[in-house]
């Protein structure tokens, strides 16, 4: 689900299917039966039964904190992009062309020798500017910092108005904390203390890399931690941040000026965004912004400058010399447990796609995404839409009034598949091989920032995409009521034209159903068919929905992911609802498709390599989440990711689904079994 700047974007899987041609004798294409661990009963641990062999065959390498099926596809996508960019280099592209811009960014990202010669030189003039600003120039310095996309203390920018998604509203949000989540600053347990200490080390090391003496770096570290900890004290918890209506707080411009007086708001909008002061602003976290304003009015110039210095160095570090990169990597080892830096070429691909993602995507689509795949997906989505409609009709906890409104929303879904209808125009982006890599990437960042600010005062462009075509993922955007499936996800094990219906419905079908369900999860349900935040539920239906979600939260909360560490069912609620909905909806669509084709799925002829089609469906779903993961990454994801761990997306979710029990003859007494009275079915 996409909700910025209110919450982190949750780019989630989805899957919907149309029928594939049924063969007289089908064989598994996406699944590998050699990976099944037949020493483990499906009713004991289904995730391990399906994935143990895969996990043993794909041990973690030093560069990965986790490695799974998604990573295999990401590797494939990265290798394709690498080849496409390398081919650009052989054509000697003309300066000023998009091809030349792509090649320049990639080449400079690969040129560590030049960056190591330059060291911190590309940012020294800006650091000097911060240091030498007199007291009377501190307001100018604050505006300059925001204008250079470092965004100290808070974030600001236009986004669709939650109450009227056809127009842009101006949002003021949090964003001044380098660690993101408040718990890292405020909790004193072993894990959070270790992260804080690593962050302090990162700040001190990077400031010394930027030329500061150890004593100065230590002072900067102390001041940064003082400020960011104070901000964390007034930040919503990760669970509270899922309450979207709570984060929609309209204020008049006069109110903002009165309540937060330590920012010159007239100058802020004119000089950082180039727009006149908005009549109304949306404050996502009023207490946080009040704390930021209080700090700006009470801190010394030295404290504020130290904070600015770190904000500037932090955003620049990945574009500078290897010592900056190594310091960041040392911090990531504590956060995720990764043991080896990703290969340079992969980091260069990331930078290039971040700069000119759709330009690369256009090349990717031309070579790797046939029209037949797009046509197939369109059919799949319609099959899943029909199936979800049936589920809505059959809900025993929802009134006819709310069901009718749910159908209105379902019927209004916009579907985007493969790639945008119109590509982003990068002609005005300035990239010069004579400039340093940092200078070019800074110009890229300024271009993207200006592109965002230019939306102000214009109608919302519903053709925009939040992912590039070469991204292995999918998402639902409630503000446009749209489901989006980039080209790169249409590969095995999600989708394979040679696979059985059961495999494809258990793969890309579940993905489509997942994204559709996001329209009706704990966040998506707040938005109507037009993408506006509207309460279209009867109070009684809303209460029954909430009761069901409480039960689902409890199911995940009880899971111990590491000794003493439990899953967070509240924070992952939206994704858990979507996983369950995706599975149930995709199964209905699969059964409908088989019935239309006259296939008796219970007949011996329907077996696929000896397995019943329903078994294959659930096995391929479990196969999607096969992965190995380090303990540090488990802790990090449990803190900061809205998705449950892969093993729980399989075992906890499936324990609510009766057809799964029937498919594998799972009965009471087995660990995977859950009594009917304790099962939670929402969609």
From TrEMBL:
Its cofactor is Zn(2+). PANTHER family: FI17812P1-RELATED, ZINC METALLOPROTEASE FAMILY M13 NEPRILYSIN-RELATED. GO terms for biological process: protein processing. Keywords: Hydrolase, Metal-binding, Metalloprotease, Protease, Zinc. The keyword Cytoplasm does not apply. Residues 473-679 form the Peptidase M13 C-terminal domain. PROSITE patterns: NEPRILYSIN, PROKAR_LIPOPROTEIN. This is M13 family peptidase. The keyword Hydrolase applies. Belongs to the peptidase M13 family. GO terms for cellular component: plasma membrane. Residues 42-420 form the Peptidase M13 N-terminal domain. Pfam families: Peptidase_M13, Peptidase_M13_N. One of its GO terms (molecular function) is metal ion binding.
């Amino acid at each position: 689900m996409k909700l910025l700047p209110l919450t982190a974007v949750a780019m989630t899987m989805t899957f919907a299917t149309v029928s594939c041609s049924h063969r007289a004798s089908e064989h598994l294409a996406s699944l590998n039966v050699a990976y099944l661990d037949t020493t483990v009963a499906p009713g004991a641990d289904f995730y391990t039964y399906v994935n143990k062999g895969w996990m043993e065959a794909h041990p973690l390498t030093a560069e990965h904190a986790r490695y799974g099926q998604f990573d295999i596809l990401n590797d494939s996508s990265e290798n394709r992009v690498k080849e496409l960019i390398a081919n650009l280099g052989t054509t000697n592209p003309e300066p000023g062309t998009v091809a030349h811009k792509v090649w320049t960014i990639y080449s400079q990202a690969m040129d560590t020798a030049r960056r190591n010669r330059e060291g911190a030189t590309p940012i020294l003039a800006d650091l000097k500017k911060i240091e030498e600003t007199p007291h009377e120039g501190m307001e100018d310095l604050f505006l300059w910092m925001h204008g250079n996309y470092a965004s100290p203390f808070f974030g600001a920018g236009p986004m669709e108005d939650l109450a009227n998604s056809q127009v842009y509203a101006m949002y003021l949000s949090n964003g001044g904390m380098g660690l993101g989540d408040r718990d890292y600053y405020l909790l004193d347990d072993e894990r959070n203390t270790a992260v804080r200490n690593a962050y302090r080390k990162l700040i001190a090391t990077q400031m010394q890399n930027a030329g500061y003496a150890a004593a100065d770096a230590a002072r900067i570290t102390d001041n940064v931690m003082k400020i960011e900890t104070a901000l964390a004290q007034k930040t919503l918890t990760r669970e509270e941040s899922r309450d979207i209506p709570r984060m929609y707080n309209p204020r008049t411009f006069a109110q903002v000026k009165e309540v937060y007086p330590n920012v010159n708001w007239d100058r802020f909008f004119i000089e950082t965004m180039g727009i006149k002061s908005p009549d109304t602003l949306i404050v996502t976290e009023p207490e946080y912004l009040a704390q930021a304003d209080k700090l700006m009015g009470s801190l010394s110039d030295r404290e504020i400058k130290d904070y600015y210095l770190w904000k500037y160095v932090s955003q620049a570090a990945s574009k500078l010399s290897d010592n900056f990169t190594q310091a960041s990597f040392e911090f990531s080892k504590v956060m995720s447990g990764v043991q080896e830096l990703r290969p340079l070429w992969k980091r260069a691909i990331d930078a290039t796609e971040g700069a000119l993602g759709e330009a690369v995507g256009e090349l990717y689509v031309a070579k790797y995404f046939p029209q037949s795949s797009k046509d197939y997906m369109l059919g799949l989505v319609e099959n899943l839409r029909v199936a979800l409609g049936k589920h809505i009709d059959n809900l025993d906890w929802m009134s006819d009034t709310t069901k009718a409104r749910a159908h209105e929303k379902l019927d209004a879904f916009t579907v985007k598949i493969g790639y945008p209808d119109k590509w982003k125009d990068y002609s005005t982006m300035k990239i010069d091989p004579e400039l340093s890599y940092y200078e070019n990437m800074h110009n890229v960042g300024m271009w993207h920032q200006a592109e965002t600010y230019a939306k102000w005062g214009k109608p919302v462009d519903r053709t925009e995409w939040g992912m590039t075509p070469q991204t292995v993922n999918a998402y639902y955007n409630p503000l446009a009521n749209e489901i989006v499936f980039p080209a790169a996800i249409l590969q095995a094990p999600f989708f394979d034209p040679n696979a059985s219906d059961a495999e494809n419905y258990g793969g890309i079908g579940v993905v489509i159903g997942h994204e559709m369900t996001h329209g009706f999860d704990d966040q998506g349900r707040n938005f109507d068919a037009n993408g506006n935040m509207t309460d279209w539920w009867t109070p009684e239906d809303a209460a029954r929905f909430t009761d069901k979600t409480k039960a689902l939260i409890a199911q995940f909360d009880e899971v111990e992911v590491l000794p003493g560490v439990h899953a967070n069912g509240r924070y992952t609620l939206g994704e858990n609802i979507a996983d369950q909905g995706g599975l149930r909806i995709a199964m209905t669509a699969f059964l409908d498709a088989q019935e239309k084709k006259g296939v008796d799925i219970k007949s011996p002829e329907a077996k696929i390599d000896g397995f019943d089609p329903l078994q294959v469906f659930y096995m391929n779903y479990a196969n999607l989440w096969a992965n190995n993961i380090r303990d540090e990454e488990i802790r990090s994801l449990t803190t900061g990711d809205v998705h449950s761990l892969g093993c729980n997306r399989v075992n906890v979710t499936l324990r609510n689904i009766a057809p799964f029990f029937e498919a594998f003859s799972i009965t009471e007494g087995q660990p995977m079994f859950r009594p009917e009275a304790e099962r939670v079915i929402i969609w």
